[in-house]
Amino acid sequence: MSKLYCEFDPKRAPADKTLPGLLKGQKALVTGANSGIGKACAIELGKAGADVVVNYVKGDEAAKEVVDTIISGGSKAFAYQADVSKEDQVQAMFKRMREEFGTIDILINNAGIQKDSKFTEMSLDLWNLVIGINLTGQFLCAREAVREFKRRGVIPEVSVSAGKIICISSVHDVIPWGGHVNYAASKGGVMLMMKSIAQEVAPDRIRVNSICPGAIRTPINTAAWDTPEAYSELMTLVPYQRIGEPEDIGRMSVFLASDMADYMTGANVYIDGGMTLYPGFASGG
Ligand SMILES: NC(=O)c1ccc[n+]([C@@H]2O[C@H](COP(=O)([O-])OP(=O)(O)OC[C@H]3O[C@@H](n4cnc5c(N)ncnc54)[C@H](O)[C@@H]3O)[C@@H](O)[C@H]2O)c1
After folding, report:
1. Are the C-beta atoms of residues 68 and 90 closer than 8 Å to each other?
2. Residue 3 pLDDT
3. Residue 111 CA: which ligand 1 atom is closest?
4. What CATH architecture applies to the domain 19-219+246-274?
5. Cβ(65) to ligand 1 under 6 A?
6. Are strands 163-168 and 77-81 parallel, antiparallel or unpaired?
7. Is the CB of 84 under 6 A from ligand 1?
8. What is the Å distance from ligand 1's center to 214 Cα?
9. pLDDT of residue 8
10. pLDDT tens across 182-201, in order?
11. By alpha-carbon position, which residue is closest to atom 42 of ligand 1?
12. Share of the chain above pLDDT 70, in %
C-alpha cells in the first residue's frame, strides 16, 4: 500500500528528455551501475549514444538487465564486477575497458554506501568501510581515468575535452548529518578531492564536477520514503514537494559529460528540490 502511494505520486519527475546522439562515440564507465542513481546514469548515457561499462559489486542479474537495456537502445555495454575500494580490482577494470572499448571518455564515480551509527558507537571498521568505498573508491577510479585521459589527449571528433569525471556526492557534503558521521565525512571529502583534481588537470582539458543529490528514491534510503508518514516527514525538508527520481540525476550526468558543459569544471551541482535552501527559514528566522 505504502509503495503504491509513492509510485503514484503526482509530483514525479517529468518524462524522458535525453538528447539522442549527444555522446555518440564516447566511452563511459559508471560505478555502482546496477541500482538506483548509477543505473539511471548508465541508461541515460547509453540513450545519449555512449557505450557503457556497467560496474557492480553484487547482483549479476541486475547488472545484466542494465546492460540489456543499453544494448536494446543501440549502444554497446558490458558488465564488470569490481569492488571500487580495491586498487587491484579497479586497475583490472580499467585495463579491461581499454581492451574492449579502446579508451574512456566519461567516468561517473557513483558507487556508495551508507552505514549508520551513533558517533560514540561507531567502530573503526564501519568508519573505514564507508570512507573506503565512498571516498577512496572515487580516488582510485578518478586516478585511473585521468591517467588514460592524459595518455590519449583530445580527439576533437569525439569531444572538445580529453575527459570528464562526474563524482556523485550528496547534499551532505555541506549539510552536517548526525548519526551519519562517516557518510558526511566521505562526501565532504569528495568535494575537495573533486575540486583539487579539477584545478590540477584543467590545463590538460579534463573536466571534473560533482552532482550532489538530495533525497532520491533508491534502495539506499527506502525508510525515508516508503510509507506515507515517512514521505510527509521527508517533504518538510524539500521545498519543491516531491522526492527526486534517479532519472533527475541521470539527465544531469549526460549534460555534464557533454560538450554543452565545456566551460564547467570544479562545480558542485545540487539537485535536491531545494533541500539546501534552509527550508526551516521559509516561515521563520
Ligand atoms: N539516494 C539518495 O537519496 C542519494 C542522495 C545523495 C547521494 N547519493 C549517492 O548516490 C550514489 C548511489 O546511491 P543510490 O542511492 O543509487 O544507492 P543504491 O544502493 O541503489 O546504489 C549503490 C550502488 O553502489 C554499488 N556499490 C556499493 N559498494 C560498492 C563497491 N565496493 N564497489 C562497487 N560498487 C559498489 C551497489 O552495488 C549499487 O549498485 C551513492 O554514492 C550515494 O551516496 C544518494
Report:
1. no
2. 44
3. 24
4. 3-Layer(aba) Sandwich (3.40)
5. no
6. unpaired
7. yes
8. 13
9. 45
10. 999 999 999 999 999 999 99
11. 112
12. 94
Burial 77-88 (b: 16+ CB within 10 A, else e): bbbbebbbbbee
CA 214 to chain centre: 12
Which atom of ligand 1 lies closest to the CA of 172?
6
Rounded Cα–Cα distance for residues 60 and 36 (Å): 15
SS3 108: strand
Secondary structure class of 1 (helix, strand, coil): coil
Q: What is the DSSP string of 159-191?
A: -SSSEEEEEE--GGGTS--TT-HHHHHHHHHHH
Enumerate the H helices of the chain as residue ranges.
Answer: 2-7, 36-47, 60-72, 87-101, 124-131, 137-152, 181-201, 228-235, 246-257
pLDDT tens string 102-122: 999 999 999 999 999 999 999
Residue nearest to atom 20 of ligand 1 (CA): 36
Ligand 1 lined by 56 (C-beta under 6 Å): yes
Protein residue with least CA distance to atom 36, ligand 1: 32
pLDDT band at 4 (very low <50, low <70, confident <90, very high): very low
Cell of 172: 551532505
pLDDT at res. 19: 72
Q: Can you give the pLDDT at residue 155?
A: 97
pLDDT at position 178, please? 97
Identify whether the C-beta of residue 111 lies closer than 8 Å to the C-beta of residue 32: yes
- Write down the residue that cell numbers 521527508 correspond to: 234
Q: Is the CB of 170 under 6 A from ligand 1?
A: yes
> What's the 171 CA to ligand 1 centre distance in angstroms?
14
Residues labelled catalytic: 183
Residue linked to cell 503504491: 4
Q: Is 215 in the pocket of ligand 1 (CB under 6 A)?
A: yes
Residues written for the chain: 285
